[in-house]
Amino acid sequence: MGINFKGANLGGFGGYELTDQLLYNIKWWIDWGVLNNGAFGIFQRGQDSFYDTTEAELHSVPDERFVEGTIWEGAGREWVWESGISVTSGEIQPFRVSGIYFNGTFHSQASVSGGVLGHHIDYQNGRVIFDQPQNSNDIIEAEFTTRSVHVSFADNPEFKVIMLDALEEFEQDLSPSGTPAREHQAWLPAIFIEVGEGRQRGLQLGGGQIKTRIINLHIFADNPSDRNLLKDWLDFQSRTSFVMADLNNITWPFDRYGDIVPGITNWPNIAASFPGQKIRLQDATSRNLNSLNSRLFRARVTWTVEIDVGGI
Questions:
Q1: CATH for the stretch 1-37+149-312
Q2: Residue range 139-148, pLDDT digits in tens
Q3: Which terminal residue of the chain has fewer beta carbons within 10 Å of its beta carbon, N or C?
């Protein structure tokens, strides 16, 4: 007789259970919250740049997974893909990348699809991926919106990079780094999400459980002001609740290149279209942590969250 695992998701092995549902939804929720409070940067042609002719200029960088000359990075760890962001009157609305400038001439993404300049926008890594290698002597630009705060997971390489190298004095260099690959670079300020210990109690007569999880939010910044602001913003969210998107039913926002799938707008609309479980942020604690070098400032906010899980 087979063993019936309680609570197994519809996707089975390879689907998303509670821990990953929490990780991704909390990331997208924080992303959306900080964006709507001005944590983004607009990069356009014609803006003066300390390093380049213009802030929009991209740089060819090596990535052993791709043919040399196909990866061109811009500023920032991630680019904004969401639409419908609220901005202060007079500010430029964050926008998606519509194409690239090749030696001064604009080419929309759709117009060059399948051609020599065919490309994909990797929003998750702040770069353009070309179908064919481009000459490093050419000037390639793109207008984009960067995230001012990088939100990721404590299991990802960037967290390990910061923790392992924290005793070294960081170089303050805002230009795109040529090595290593983007996801192995550390961009500050950053918030890293960790789903910690858990417990449960009965939900109701006849079944179900209330799952309690400890969420640790590790904050890193290169100045105390950013550290303090992010710590306070996250601490203020206690007694908040929201409905998560059901990751086993949604259309995933990104394709294999990190580009946006047609029809995707933003995380709130995804959650409204494919609602999952409701998360309640019951309590929050916060504290500053010792700075391990003169350019790294740390804090940690810990949430206690509850999720009702029926049928188990």
A1: 3.30.2000.30
A2: 999 999 999 9
A3: N
